[in-house]
Design goal:
The chain is α/β, with parallel strands linked by helices. The protein is 47% helix and 18% strand. Strands 3-2-1-4-5-7-6 form a 7-stranded mixed beta sheet, with helices on both faces.
Length: 371
């Protein structure tokens, strides 16, 4: 995952919070997590439950899943009738992200987090422990049958790599100047991204199946698309504007054209049907529920063109800065994102972005255990 920059991450959340439809995504995800956590506690009869947050990052929300689950279990303990006389399990939380993630800052914040949780929950607080496991979720991370629940939010759209086919002379020629597939890209480039996602997501499912115990499950939340028409997809518009900024700097000799041609975003937002098809083909999980929630990205009644341009650029930087810094170097980033912010503001002014949608896929899975 790209490194989080806390101040800019706050700006991202401010953009998202402007939409009542975005809150529907948050509410639905929280409801599914609550139901799944209660089922784990009531049906597995274990002394300890292990919950893994895949792609936890290191910003202010790195411990949000820990907080949500503890809140759910505290309320469950409060409601539990005296006749049940059953002690709720201990909870082992494991935070996962790439080795480059700033786990030190996460654990430095843990002492204050623990203090706050104890003050809020009091005697209802179950024993819990927080650990970390670095590594890519595009492969095995844990021993077999040791995890009861996986939570993964805003991470699965990241590919293990950009499709290798994009490094060919043909791809560079046909998609020159673009960092992603666009509305004008040839179909085979879109297919290359789709196939890379299929391979990565299949590996993800195979790995999680081995790691989950009987009765275990997962909640996956990640960006998706409404359909094959890219005209209303926000990331296609944003990547085009970002490509324009890079191309202008390449024309001025600030970055090399060869470096630009060699860069492709390792990102793919799939269709819901694509995701469901991969899961069914793998046959290792039952789909408990699957949703695609879409909403307008910008509220046309609350636009501030310059402010929103800068805010969107800063949000894009927060999610991707380490990726761009690794390929293009740190020195050009400030100028690059200033140019990008100007292009985004212009796109808002010309109403190219106001009709774009953001879509989120929310899927709950249960390990498919043969009878």
């Amino acid at each position: 995952m790209a490194e989080n920059l806390p101040t800019r991450q706050g700006e991202v959340e401010q953009i998202l919070a402007n939409s009542s439809d975005q809150r529907k995504v948050i509410i639905m995800a929280k409801s599914i997590l609550e139901k799944a956590t209660e089922q784990l506690c009531r049906t597995l009869f274990l002394d300890r439950i292990t919950i893994v947050d895949l792609g936890c990052s290191s910003g202010p929300n790195a411990l949000s899943v820990v907080s949500q689950v503890l809140d759910i279990i505290s309320k469950l303990d409060e409601r539990q009738s005296k006749e049940e006389e059953r002690t709720l399990p201990e909870i082992q939380f494991i935070l996962n992200d790439l080795p480059s993630n700033d786990f030190n800052s996460v654990f430095q914040s843990l002492e204050e987090f623990n203090k706050k949780i104890k003050e809020e929950r009091g005697n209802l607080l179950v024993p819990y422990y927080v650990a970390a496991a670095s590594g890519s979720f595009h492969g095995r991370l844990f021993p077999s049958s040791t995890v009861q629940f996986f939570y993964c939010s805003t991470s699965l759209h990241w590919l293990s790599q950009a499709p290798r086919e994009l490094g060919s002379a043909e791809a560079i020629s046909q998609n020159r100047g673009n960092i992603y597939f666009t509305r004008t890209s040839p179909p085979w480039i879109v297919k290359a991204y789709r196939e890379q996602f299929r391979r990565d997501f299949s590996t993800f499912l195979e790995s999680r199946f081995e790691e989950l115990s009987v009765g275990g499950g997962a909640l996956l939340i990640f960006p998706g698309r409404e359909g094959e028409d890219e005209d209303g997809d926000i990331f296609n518009h944003i990547s085009e504007l970002f490509s324009d900024s890079l191309n202008a700097m390449a024309e001025e000799g600030i970055i090399s054209k060869a470096k630009l041609d060699a860069f492709n975003m390792p990102f793919y937002s799939p269709l819901l049907e694509e995701v469901k098809s991969i899961i069914l083909n793998e046959s290792s999980f039952d789909i408990e529920q699957a949703h695609l929630l879409s909403y307008k990205w910008l509220d046309a009644t609350k636009l501030d063109i310059l402010r929103d341009g800068k805010m969107i650029a800063n949000g894009f930087r927060a999610w991707n800065e380490s990726l761009f810094a690794h390929h293009f170097g740190d020195a050009i980033l400030d100028e690059l994102f200033e140019r990008f912010a100007e292009r985004v503001s212009r796109g808002i002014l010309e109403e190219k972005l106001t009709n774009c949608t953001v879509s989120n896929i929310i899927i709950e899975l249960k390990k498919n255990t043969p009878p």
